[in-house]
Specification:
Largest sheet: 3 strands, mixed
Structural class: mainly alpha
Shape: globular
Strand order of the largest sheet: 4-3-5
Length: 726
C-alpha cells in the first residue's frame, strides 16, 4: 500500500491506491510471463547446440535477491553430481527373511509400478487363458511329472521311453514347418536366436526323418524345436492370443529340457532353448510369469558363461559358419541381458567387462545369412550394444551412481552413432518389414529415454513449474521428446500390425514407460510450451492401451495406471493451484496404498510391503469352453488328439466394480468431458478446447461440478478418486 488508509488526500495527483496496486500487479505478471517465455526459448535453443546450460540460466534468483542489489546465488549443482536417493524399490511380502521379495533398481520403475498395481477394469474381457495353470492335465503322467519338475532333472528316469512319448506329441511335419516359418517371419525384427538353417534345414529333418545316416536328436534338440513351435503358435495370426496349442508345445518343451540336466549336460542348444522359453513366458499373457522370463534369461546367460561362450571361438580353433553362429548368438544373448538389466534395474547376468567375443563382420553376414530373413539390424545392433548399451549398463549399475557429465557424454555417443537405412526393396514378408522399420525407428529414442529417465524425474520434482530451469533440465526435454516419439510410432505400428504388436509384450512395456513420462508432465502442467501437447499425447496413449487391452494382458495391466494419471491431469486442469501445491507436498491427498508415479518411475528409494488393505475380489466362477472354441485353439492336424482334455478350463470373470477398480463408466465420463477420447482422428476435439478465459473453460468446470454434486450417484462411487472428488 502507498499510505496507511488506502487513499491519498484530495487534490492534484490524487488517486485510489487499489487501482494503482492492481495495475502494477497486472504489469508485473505480464513482465514475469514474458521473462519466463524468453528463458524457456533460450533454454530450448541452448539445448539444441550444447550439453551445458546457458550462463544466463545457471543462476537462481530469490525474491529477496530480486529486490536488492546483491548478486544472485549460483545454482548449487555440478555436472559431476549424480542422482539423489535413487536406489529403486524393494517389494517385501511378509517376513523379511522368509517372505517373497523383489527388487527393481532405479531404471526399473515401470516394472515396479506394474507390480504394485491392484486395480482391474471389469468391462475389458480377460484373455481366455489367464488361468492356464488350472486346466485339466491331459499329458502322460511321465511328461507331466517332468513338466512340474522344471528345470530340475529327477533321477531314475526311463529316458528312452519318455523321449518316445515326447516325440509322439509332435505335430504333423507340414504344421511344424508352417509354425517355424511363422516364427521366423513374425519375429525376424527381434534379435535372432535360431536361424532358418538350424530349424528347417537341421532340426526338422533330424526329428521327423531319422535314418542310419542321421543320428537321433537329443532331448534338448527336441526342447528347442518345441519352443520354436510354441512361439510360432503364439504369434500365429490365425490363432487366438495365448492359445492352447502354444501352451501344449511349451509344456512338452519343458519336459524335454528336464530329460537332460541343464546344469551338468548343457550345450549351445540348451542355452537357446532356455532363451526361447524366457521369451515365451514374457509373451504368455500372465503377468506373474514376468519373473520366470527374467530368471530363465539369466539362467541361459549363466550357462553361456559356463561353456565359455563369452570368449571368441577363434581362441578354440573354431572357424567358418560355426564361429559365425556362435559370435552372432552371443551378441544377441548379451544384448538381451543388457536390455533386461535396463528394464528391471538389476545387474546383468553377463558383465560387459568379461565379454571378449568379436562382432561378426559384414562379409560373414553376407555369406552365412543369404537365405535368412533380414535380422533386425544385423551386426549393427551388436556394434550398438558394444559401443553404447554396454557403457550405459556399466555406468548405471555401478555402486556409485553416474554423475550428470557422464550421462551427457553417453547421450552424445548415442546420438552420434549412425543408424543404417532400411532397404525397402527386400522381397520379404510385409509384416516383418513393417516391424523391422518400427524397431529401427525407436532404437535410439528408447536408449535415450532409459538414460535420462532418472534425471527427468529429478527435474520434475525439483522444479515442477519449470523443469527447464533445473540444472538437469536437458534430461527433461530429452526424456519427454523421446517418450512422445515412442508413443507416436507405437500408435502407428499398432494400426498397421495390431495382432502381432499385441502379442509382443516388450512393445507395451516400452510404450508404458513413455506414457508415464508424458502423463507426469500432463499432471504437473509446467508453465512452458511443449510440442506435442502432453495431455493430448496422454489421451492418445490411453486410447492405444484401451484398444490393445482387449487382447494384450500387459496393456490391460498398465491401463488403470494410465487412467489414474489422466484423472490427475484432469484435476490439474480444474485446479492448477492445488496441483502445484501438491507437487511440493504430494502425499496428503493421496491414499497410502497409492504410489506416487513420479517417485516410483524415477527410481526413488522405497520399501514396499504388502498392504493389509486388500482390494476386494468377487468370487470366480469357472466357465465351460465349447467344443468349437477348443477346436479353434487347437488345429486338427496334430498327431495326438489332446483337444478333448481342454474343455473344462476355468476363466477369469469380469469383476464387479468395487473399491480399487477402474470402470469404463468412468471412461465414458471423461470421454464426455474431453470429447471423443477413443478416436484416432487427427481432428478429434482436444481436452484443452478454448483458451483460458473463454466460455469453454467455464462450461467445462460447470459440467464437472455438476457431475460431482449429483445426488443420484451411489455412495462411495468416487471414493477411489481421492478427497478432491468428494
Amino acid at each position: 500500500m502507498l499510505c496507511p488508509n488506502g487513499t491519498m488526500p484530495p487534490g492534484k495527483g490524487s488517486r485510489f491506491v487499489g487501482v494503482a496496486e492492481e495495475y502494477l500487479r497486472h504489469k508485473a505478471a505480464k513482465l514475469e510471463e514474458r521473462m519466463r517465455s524468453l528463458e524457456d526459448a533460450l533454454a530450448i535453443l541452448q539445448g539444441n547446440t550444447s550439453t551445458q546450460p546457458h550462463p544466463l540460466l545457471t543462476t537462481i534468483w530469490s525474491n529477496e535477491e530480486a529486490d536488492s542489489d546483491t548478486p544472485p546465488a549460483m545454482a548449487e549443482f555440478n555436472t559431476h553430481d549424480g542422482l539423489i536417493d535413487a536406489l529403486g524399490s524393494l517389494h517385501l511380502d511378509g517376513d523379511p527373511q522368509s517372505g517373497t521379495a523383489r527388487f527393481f533398481g532405479p531404471s526399473g520403475g515401470s516394472e515396479s509400478l506394474l507390480l504394485a498395481e491392484k486395480r482391474v477394469i471389469p468391462d475389458i474381457p480377460a484373455p481366455s487363458t489367464e488361468t492356464q495353470e488350472t486346466e485339466a492335465d491331459y499329458l502322460s503322467h511321465l511328461i507331466s511329472n517332468l513338466d512340474q519338475a522344471f528345470p530340475l532333472t529327477p533321477s531314475g528316469l526311463p529316458k528312452e521311453q519318455i523321449q518316445e512319448i515326447i516325440e509322439s506329441y509332435l505335430p504333423e511335419i507340414q504344421r511344424a514347418v508352417s509354425l517355424c516359418e511363422t516364427f521366423l517371419k513374425s519375429l525376424s525384427w527381434l534379435p535372432q536366436i535360431v536361424s532358418r538353417q538350424q530349424t528347417i534345414d537341421h532340426l526338422i529333418p533330424l526329428t521327423y526323418r531319422p535314418g542310419l545316416e542321421r543320428p537321433r536328436c537329443g532331448p534338448h534338440d527336441l526342447a528347442l524345436l518345441f519352443s520354436v513351435l510354441a512361439l510360432g503358435a503364439l504369434v500365429d495370426p490365425t490363432l487366438p492370443p495365448y492359445n492352447a496349442e502354444a501352451r501344449h508345445y511349451h509344456r512338452v518343451a519343458r519336459a524335454a529340457l528336464c530329460l537332460q540336466s541343464v546344469f551338468s549336460e548343457r550345450s549351445v542348444v540348451t542355452i537357446k532353448a532356455l532363451h526361447l522359453m524366457s521369451m515365451y513366458y514374457g509373451m504368455s499373457g500372465i503377468e506373474s510369469n514376468a519373473e520366470l522370463c527374467y530368471s530363465l534369461l539369466n539362467l541361459a546367460c549363466q550357462a553361456a558363461l559356463q561353456i565359455g561362450f563369452h570368449k571368441d571361438p577363434s581362441r578354440w580353433g573354431i572357424k567358418g559358419r560355426e564361429a559365425y553362429e556362435r559370435r552372432s548368438y552371443f551378441w544377441t544373448l548379451f544384448s538381451q541381458s543388457l536390455w533386461q538389466s535396463l528394464a528391471t534395474g538389476r545387474p546383468p547376468a553377463i558383465i560387459p567387462a568379461v565379454a571378449d567375443c568379436q562382432v561378426p563382420n559384414d562379409l560373414d553376414e553376407a555369406t552365412y545369412r543369404s537365405r535368412d530373413i533380414p535380422i533386425s539390424f544385423g551386426n549393427w545392433s551388436s556394434h550398438f550394444t558394444k559401443e553404447c548399451l554396454a557403457p550405459i549398463i556399466e555406468a548405471t549399475q555401478a555402486v556409485k551412481p553416474p554423475d550428470y557429465q557422464t550421462i551427457l557424454e553417453l547421450d552424445r555417443k548415442i546420438r552420434q552413432f549412425p543408424v543404417p537405412e532400411l532397404q525397402n526393396s527386400t522381397p520379404f514378408d510385409r509384416a516383418a518389414m513393417e516391424m523391422h522399420a518400427f524397431s529401427q525407428s525407436r532404437y535410439k529414442e528408447l536408449t535415450l529415454m532409459f538414460l535420462h529417465r532418472g534425471f527427468f524425474a529429478q527435474a520434475m520434482g525439483d522444479f515442477p513449474s519449470d523443469p527447464l530451469r533445473s540444472p538437469v533440465g536437458r534430461s527433461f526435454m530429452v526424456a519427454y521428446q523421446c517418450a512422445s516419439v515412442l508413443i507416436t510410432v507405437t500408435i502407428n505400428q499398432f494400426e498397421l500390425q495390431p495382432v502381432l504388436c499385441s502379442r509382443v509384450w516388450r512393445v507395451w512395456t516400452i510404450a508404458f514407460s513413455a506414457a508415464v513420462i508424458v502423463g507426469t508432465v500432463a499432471i504437473r502442467r509446467p508453465g512452458i510450451p511443449l510440442d506435442p501437447d502432453p495431455f493430448e499425447h496422454l489421451e492418445k496413449a490411453c486410447t492405444l492401451f484401451h484398444d490393445a487391452a482387449q487382447t494384450c494382458s500387459r496393456a490391460k495391466t498398465a491401463l488403470p495406471i494410465l487412467l489414474r494419471l489422466r484423472q490427475k491431469a484432469v484435476h490439474a486442469r480444474m485446479d492448477p493451484l492445488q496441483i502445484r501445491h501438491a507437487s511440493h507436498n504430494p502425499k496428503p491427498s493421496e491414499s497410502e496404498d497409492e504410489p506416487d508415479e513420479l517417485d516410483v518411475f524415477g527410481g526413488r528409494t522405497q520399501l514396499v510391503t504388502k498392504s493389509t488393505k486388500q482390494v476386494p475380489w468377487p468370487p470366480r466362477h469357472p466357465i465351460q469352453l465349447s467344443s468349437s472354441t477348443a477346436s479353434q485353439n487347437n488345429p486338427p492336424d496334430q498327431r495326438n488328439n489332446y483337444q478333448l482334455h481342454l474343455m473344462n478350463i476355468p476363466d477369469v470373470q469380469d469383476y464387479a466394480l468395487g473399491e480399487g477398480a477402474v470402470g469404463l463408466s468412468e471412461l465414458a465420463l471423461l470421454r464426455e468431458i474431453s470429447g471423443p477420447l477413443y478416436s484416432r482422428s487427427p481432428c478429434a476435439p482436444s481436452f484443452y478446447g478454448p483458451q483460458h478465459g473463454q466460455q469453454g473453460d467455464l462450461m467445462l468446470q460447470d459440467r464437472w461440478s455438476s457431475f460431482l454434486n449429483d445426488a443420484s450417484l451411489p455412495q462411495g462411487y468416487l471414493s477411489h478418486l481421492g478427497p478432491q472428488a468428494r
